[in-house]
Amino acid sequence: MSLPSVRPYGWKAFGVAAAAVAATTLAFALIVGLPLGSPHFVTALDDIGEALAALIAAGACAWAASRSDSQFQRAWALLGASAAAWCLGQVVWTVDEVVLGVAPFPSVADVGFLAAVPLAIAGLLSFWTAPRGTAERWHLWLDGVNIVLALTFTGWALGLQQVWLSGGSLAERAIGLAYPVGDILIATVLVLGIRRATRYQHGRMLLLLGGLAAISISDSAFAYMTTNGTYLNVFDTGWVVGYLMIGLAALWPARPNDRVADRLPIDLWQIALPWTVIVAAATTALVVVLRGGRTDQFQTELAVAMAALLIVSEVLTHIDSLSMVVTSRRSEAMLAEVIAQAPIGIARVDRTFKIIDANPGMAQLLRDPTDVMVGSTIARYLRTDDRALAYEKIGALMSESVAGIQADNLMIRADATEVWVHWTSTAVRSSTGELEYFLTTLEDVTATHEAEESAEANLVMLERLNELKSEFLQGVTYEFKTALMEINGSSELIRDGDGLEASEVKALAGDIYKNGARLDRMITEMLDLDRIETGRGSLSIAPVDLNAIIAREVQGVRANLDGAVLSVNLKASLPAVVGDATKLSEVVRTLLRNAIKYSPDGGLIVIASATHDGQVRVSVKDEGLAVRADFDNRLFGEGDLYTNNPIRKVVGTGLGLGIARQIVEMHGGQIGVDHLEGVGSISHFTLPPAKSISRLEPEAAGLVA
Fold first, then answer.
1. Which residues sit opposite 423 in a β-bridge?
2. Tens digits of per-residue pLDDT, 364-378?
3. What is the pTM of this model?
4. How far apart are alpha carbons 462 and 459 in whole angstroms?
5. Cα first-last separation, the chain
6. How far is CA 653 from CA 352, 556, 624, 676, in A?
């Protein structure tokens, strides 16, 4: 049964209406029951009060219908029509009894009274939602028939038998039975409705049940006592209080979340409600037996029918239970299979952070057997620094301040290796809201973190390259402008100078020539570097003695040491290398010039040759403050993403060092720099010895002129 949707109505107003109903009912019962007043006054008040109560119920139901939607609008309208029909019957009865002074039975008034019964049943049925599934519909019908039989059994023992066996005509007996039978049907529908109602509907449905029960008592009493000729007016109070309670049910305040409440489970007492009716019938039979009476054939047949239906109901219930057990076990098996095959780690963790159970994915991720993990705390796999934060997050989850938590953590596996995981945790609670365990999942995101770190490192590298590009352009620009300024200055002196001597003109011309040669050398170096970068350089391959090249280049720079001290330390039996002697001389010259450039006055420069790890090694050590900032081993590294990027090779190493780097790599060697902890650095390069010529030839084959 779905909730009758009524727009919010204040509880305060409802309380006032309930108090008025209670006061009115009490006053009515006192006046009619004592009685207080003349017989004619009491009769008039009795009949008019009943009509007014039914009219109030009809009005309240009409009000509820006007403020409800679709299905519930129809339900309240039918209940209102039922009350209105009963009110019309009571008006006819009042005219007959009060005005005309007669009380015929049956009469026209019975048309209105009896018409109220099917309208009430239709109204209650309109509150229902259709049962889901054939089994549920069968249970509903069985429960309904059992309730009808039980109520009939009880009613038969309490007076229906006397009504049927009275000496009146068939019409009188049929109409007399119609009232309690109609009440039995209404009560059956209402009990089934309450059984299907959610907890937020209980107030309204119990008011309807109480009201219809009061009306049923009055109907049964009227039928039984009219037959015996001993009717008491106090039983008329049942009609008054019954219809006023129906009116209160229509005024029951609806809450904003009542619709959501439709999905809540029903209570245990609702499931047992139909059985209380059967228990009442059994109790009635027991009382009859204890008082020395016995059941007649009709009651016996009712009892047999109820027993048969109960057996059928139990069999169906058992079949349904077995089906639910099978379905549940299949679902559990399927869920267990899904969890076992899941590619992520899944575990249940208790409130003390101990692992209750874990799937194979968790064991594989943390490299720990499942039987070892179960019973241990999840914190053992967290770094010490991360435990406090994890406890804080789970504490918030435990206090219900958050619905779920997730984070990325570096976890320590059982084999002491590390793994980045993305973990989520959700609190699983019982129906009472008590925390049972945390459902935690772990997913390996190491690759994602490594990709992010690599991207961050590449970004730093790009920023570094951008800085080096700016430095390179500034340096080249400075060199070009310096040379051009000297050329322009010397030429202006020659052009504008009057009376210059031949020696002065010759000196200025020498300066112009020197700076022109300087520009030519820079352009040549840039072109050479471009040829090497684009693969258009050439090598004249031949055995080369590096010691001889070093000695020749040392002799060439001694005149330009600028106060530095140059020391030579060459290995006597240095293996020959295969390469281009001219190009390798340029490499040695570049390293020596770079060391002289950065050496302080009196600084020591040591050039040495040696063998190292099967390679021929040449090194130049200086005591300068630093080498060029752009001569960076990180940019020379083979593992660098931009190792073969032409922009990096030009920008990252300058012209001379860039050319040196390319020449060494063309010979199959490596070049780098080691920064000393104190002052200075060691620039070095290595080449394969002549016995490795087979490895060099494939690389140099396309470069030999």
1. 407, 442
2. 999 999 888 998 888
3. 0.51
4. 5
5. 97
6. 59, 24, 18, 19
